[in-house]
Amino acid sequence: MATSELDPEQFLEALREHHRVLRWEPLPPDEPSRPLGGEQARNRSALAYLHQHWTLPDRFHDEDAGNGLKGRLIGAFGRLTYRVLGRYLREERELLGHMVRISETLEHRCDELTVRIAELNGEVLRRQVAEARNQALLAAWLHAEPPVEDANDRP
Amino acid sequence: MISVPDGRGSHTQPRPDAQPSATTGSGTSRPVVAVLTTRWESGSEPGWAIRQIAGAMACVADVHVVTPQGTGPSVRADGVFTLHETGTPVRPVDELSRDTLIGAFTGAGVGTTGRVDLQLGRILDRGQTQPWEAAAAVLAELHPDRVVVAGHLNMGALRAVDRAVPDVPVSLVPLAVDALALAFPHFGPLLDRAESLLALSEAEAAVLAARIGDPARVHWIGAPLAANPSSRSEPNTWVGDTGYVLVLTDASTDDGNAESAVLARSIRLAIPDPPVGISTTDGFHVWHEGRRSSGWPVERSSDLARLIAWAAVTVDLRPGPLFARRCVESLLYGTPIVVPSASRAADLARRSRGGLWYSSPGELIWSIEALLGASTRTALSVQGRRYAEAGYGTTDGFVRRVLAATGLAGRDRSPGPRDRPATGSPVAVGA
Fold first, then answer.
1. Single pTM value for the model
2. B424 and A CB contact within 8 Å
3. What is the pLDDT along chain B (431 residues), one digit of tens a residue?
4. Are B363 and A15 an interchain contact pair (Cβ–Cβ within 8 Å)?
5. A15 to chain B: nearest residue by CA?
């Protein structure tokens, strides 16, 4: 393949001429990217356990007491206990239900934030690269011409 | 006219009175050549070059290397050479003192007019000539047909030659790096005494020709370098075949304030893509889009050759001062170079038209960006490779040029009585 001859002297002179008119400007900020939706990388096993075990019993079951005199005594005591503490236990059941729902909401929010942080990390990195490139170009432009010696500066 | 690598130009012939000193059993003669060098090593560019030149001469001559280094007088075989160590080494501090004085005298305008006071000469020669006194006895015993002196500041070697074998022709490998030292008149007698001067690069040859005013004595011999095809077979695993920018520095990874480290940082910040591979003294770091992956340091020449072969651009922030060996290799692989403007490598880029040079960080970045464009890169790649292959690309060509420059061309190539069995080409000597 034939290639045309290139004179480095002339090429460098043209390069210097081209960069003599370079003007540095701040890098405009890019359009921030929107968070990605629907991609959640969370472990649901803990939340599933909560869903399966948050419901407390709301009455005493006679079959838990057993048979005989001892069983009847335990049954009576159990029914008495639930009758006395029933209101408290129902409220506690409502409370646990709320906590499970809050946990669900928090986990969902955590997933969103995790994804968002990952996106921000990427954006920060890309931004740093772009800024560094811009600063390097600025530095290069500032050093494009060696400082001119002023005759008055000579001793 | 300077003798050029393609063989055109003038060649210095041996003096008629040069007598062959070694004779084979069949009666064919092999000249004896003494190479006088302050150090016999291959770690630096000058040391490597001297070893290659000696290896080229060993094709037709018995080469005796005479050096003041070592812990005591000794004579031993070193490959195809016979190594004579006098055990009176030149101290690095004396060399540093000499170089500092040259800079100081030049700055003060002393000694540049050709009238160096005797006292100044003594100061410059302090610690330089005494180590060579023992070499005179070695030369007298060898009585070589030719003496090759390494280094244009090596006045001690010249005095040893003048004392022991004053009529023997002298070739000089100036290893001219410092323009100030080359211009210093105190060292003129060595340049004047040399029958031929061997320059490793076209730029060095031009400087020498201007200095001595007699271009016919200057020979551009190049160096025995070639692109190894195996380096093109598989890329470096850290950076692959990504069309990366290869940056060669002389700084360590932790030395962030070194000039070359600062420039390397500017490059990888300004050019996030393609990858930028930065070679430091203790590691190889690949930067891409602000991320770094680090690998092992580039220690073997084959590793460097592979990196150069697959790079889009080679940026040598501290090229070799003598003939920029890494840059020559890059051109041989068709990889354009970017080098500092105040360097021997910039002369190489200018003459080969195979690269660009910079005098500010801005020009450094623009030059790299320009060479990442395919059309510019291809044009400079073709031009650079063409030049490097003509001046450096073949071992045979290098041997031919050295023999022509030293007046040994046409001598018998049959092995002499002092030869060891040849194990390879002169390129392999000391490589």
1. 0.70
2. no
3. 555 554 333 333 333 334 444 444 444 578 999 999 999 998 888 999 999 999 999 999 999 999 999 999 999 999 999 999 999 999 988 888 888 888 887 777 665 565 666 677 788 888 888 999 999 999 999 999 999 999 999 999 999 999 999 999 999 999 988 877 888 888 888 999 999 999 999 989 999 999 898 889 999 999 888 888 888 888 888 888 889 999 999 888 778 778 888 888 888 888 888 999 999 888 888 988 888 888 777 777 778 899 999 999 999 999 988 889 999 999 999 999 999 998 999 999 999 999 999 988 888 998 999 999 999 999 999 999 999 998 888 888 899 999 999 998 876 544 433 333 333 233 323 33
4. yes
5. B366
User: How many whole angstroms separate alpha carbon B305 and alpha carbon B359?
Assistant: 27
Burial of A112: CB neighbours in 10 Å, binned 0-12, 13-18, 19+: middle
Residue of A nearest to B363 (CA): A144
> b/e map of B334-353 (b: 16 or more CB within 10 Å)?
bbbbbbbbebbbbbbbbebb
Tell whether A8 lies on the interface with B, counting CB pairs under 8 A.
Answer: yes
- B269 and A132 within 8 Å at the Cβ level: the answer is yes
A73 contacts A62 by C-beta, under 8 angstroms = no
Which residue, chain included where needed, has tokens 């500017």? B266
**Distance, in angstroms, between A105 CA and closest chain B CA?**
37
Closest partner CB to B359 (pick from A128, A129, A146)? A146
